[in-house]
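hey m, so remember when u said the tokens were messed up on ur end? i reran from scratch. heres the input so u can diff it against urs
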Amino acid sequence: MHQETATNQSGATRAIAVGRALLDNIQQVVMGAPGAVTAAALTALSGGHLLIEDVPGVGKTILARALAASLGTDLSRIQGHPDLLPSDVTGVSVFSPEASTWEFRPGPVFSHVVLVDELNRTPPRTQSALLEAMEEQQVSVDGEAWPLPHPHLVIATQNPVSHLGTYPLVESQLDRFALSTSVGYPDAAAEEGLVAHRGGRYALESLKPVCDVATWQAAQQETESVNVAPDVARYAVTICRSTRTAPGVRLGASPRAAIWLIRSSQAHAVLSGRDYVVPGDVKVLAVACLAHRLVTEGGMHQAASTVRDLIETIPSPRP
């Protein structure tokens, strides 16, 4: 039913239908984590990538699988570990005796939705293999560029507690993620539902797609065309630029961050049933879009506090 509704409508209405259907569908599986579910839907609509930082066992992988299933595509999973090589991600050229030529065998990154579990357990060289894929929608192997499927969405997870055997993500890697979120522990009612098989992998087995890849791509295009007034764009840019001179910040938000703050705000407008962005969209997403990109003296907590302070002090345009 959701698929017919999303496919038969057009324009912003179609994108709104896809976004709301995604939320409803994923919430059947991921219980008690509305913020993470919303972040997944926002990332799918905006065309960005998602970083999930959380402790083990709270449903990060289930969230990624539910999103891929809802979008009508398969999920390719890469398990991070210290021995993972770049070719294990991108693929490798293999000599074919029959054809007397080298043939490229694509790696797991060649999928519409890619889950990189525990990205910070992979060495820097392997982490860097994802930089080109996430930014340019392609990978280079043996001097030849290979385009990735489109749309292409990377969901990466990392454990913020255990640092044994981890390689912290560098600033250029963090800057590739449109949004950062966490799943968190569910409340008592949601956790009781999970142990009673009313969510999680049990619900995932019967989850139906709400659209296909073509409809998903069309929804992304319509989301990108959502109207952004000049004063709203200026407001988002002002917030980003202000992070660069904020006290205690050694590295502020990049111009790429401003772009994704706007794109994510457009997706938030779609989920809110609008074809235009309001200042409230920017405010809601500023922390999720900017905090993980900042390098501060006090770490992630100070970065989030800095963004919140800027939201409170910088005047917003009238909606």
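this time it looks ok to me. The chain has a mean pLDDT of 89. if urs says something different then somethings off w ur setup not the seq
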